[in-house]
Specification:
With about 375 residues, the protein is of the alpha+beta class. About 50% of the residues lie in helices and about 15% in strands. The two termini are about 40 Å apart. Mean pLDDT is about 80; it is low at about 85-90. It holds the Pfam family HTH_30. It comes from Cohnella candidum.
Length: about 375
């Protein structure tokens, strides 16, 4: 806080003010609420402590030795909450204010590991959460002069997805988008039962890809989108955000160049990410006939396409725009150099694991 504003606050309170940073857990141990918000207060032996602002699991507090009436505390609480908002200079709508409040609560829960928390009744936006909403996590970075405002992004999303779409800011450049699942049945060629079928995942992937194209086409910059199956956000939004964040993280780690990430396709990556680096490196070295095999971009792209096509030779050749015999030649070359035949199930599983481990080990 600037010196003049700090003096103004001390004059307003009629007492000396000090500031410090603490964790949400420390705040709770001292008698504060489990999910602190700007303006919350606790009585201390030597005065009163107010929450100035929150940032995940960390909070900034003001300590003062002054004594306050209930009315004074309420006025100060309102002032701090007004100052704490990330609203644009022109002010925010009620919906944006409610969405930012929900987003801050979600981040607090995720940072604190409380992923099973349900949206509390005090959240005004809870009344607009219903069973059957598609969760999208959008992470994007644009040039400062091209970054969308909340209202601009919300308007674009309502036009692209649905009028019932909710936009919830999480952190800078990170947004949670909740859209009604009826969109899946409204997709061209889909039927009313698609939400409950495996085909639904294909539709979700298509929606996520379209969302990515819409955002990058409108504002440019790097953009990543993850999508999950429909949820009841009032019950599981925190858990869903944690899963979608992990999905983007693993996708960027294991699949460079991919911008749309699907949680049902990264089970193996989630398992492998928990293996210590030393174990990963040793395993790759011991199992490969040639350690530099994956240094060849053609080999890596061929294997990536082969596995994405469920090891189907004909479909892989079409995906790579090469003749079937050319693909067979490449696969035979891998067999000769690595001693592993990816047309065999056991060897295909092993090569898939080796390729993923090599990618993440190489980038360390």
């Amino acid at each position: 806080m600037q010196s003049a504003k700090w003096q103004q606050l001390e004059q307003l309170l009629g007492a000396k003010v000090t500031t410090r940073t603490m964790t949400a857990a420390e705040w709770e141990r001292e008698g504060g609420s489990k999910y602190p918000e700007a303006g919350d207060s606790v009585k201390l032996p030597e005065g009163t402590r107010f929450v100035a602002r929150t940032a995940g699991s960390e909070i900034t507090v003001y300590d003062t030795a002054g004594e306050f009436t209930a009315l004074e505390q309420e006025l100060l609480r309102l002032l701090l909450r007004q100052r704490n908002g990330r609203a644009p200079a022109g002010g925010a709508s009620d919906l944006e204010r409610q969405a930012r409040k929900l987003g801050e609560w979600i981040i607090q829960c995720v940072s604190g590991g409380d992923t099973r928390a349900e949206v509390p009744e005090r959240m005004e936006l809870r009344t607009r959460l219903f069973d059957g909403m598609i969760p999208f996590l959008l992470m994007c970075e644009q040039a400062e002069d091209k970054e969308p405002s909340y209202s601009d992004l919300e308007k674009a999303l309502r036009s692209f997805l649905s009028e019932d779409t909710l936009l919830v800011p999480l952190r800078e450049h990170e947004w949670l988008i909740l859209a009604p699942d009826r969109m899946m049945a409204e997709t061209e060629g889909a039927d009313e039962e698609i939400v409950d079928s495996d085909e639904g995942k294909t539709v979700l992937a298509s929606l996520a890809s379209g969302l990515h194209q819409m955002v990058t086409g409108e504002w440019g910059g790097e953009c990543h989108v993850a999508v999950g199956e429909p949820i009841d956000p009032a019950e599981s939004v925190v858990h869903t955000v944690a899963i979608l964040r992990e999905t983007v993280q693993l996708g960027r780690r294991f699949h460079m160049g991919m911008q749309v990430h699907l949680p049902w396709l990264i089970h193996l990556e989630r398992l492998l990410s928990g293996i210590p680096e030393a174990v990963r490196s040793r395993f790759v070295e011991e199992m490969m006939g040639r350690p530099d095999l994956f240094n060849d971009p053609e080999t890596v792209s061929t294997l990536d396409a082969f596995f994405s096509m469920d090891c189907n030779v004909s479909e892989t050749a079409k995906k790579l725009f090469i003749h079937r015999n050319t693909l067979l030649y490449r696969l035979d070359k891998i067999k000769q150099e690595a001693g592993l035949d990816v047309r065999s199930f056991n060897d295909a599983v092993l090569v898939r694991i080796l390729l993923l481990l090599y990618k993440v080990t190489k980038r360390k």
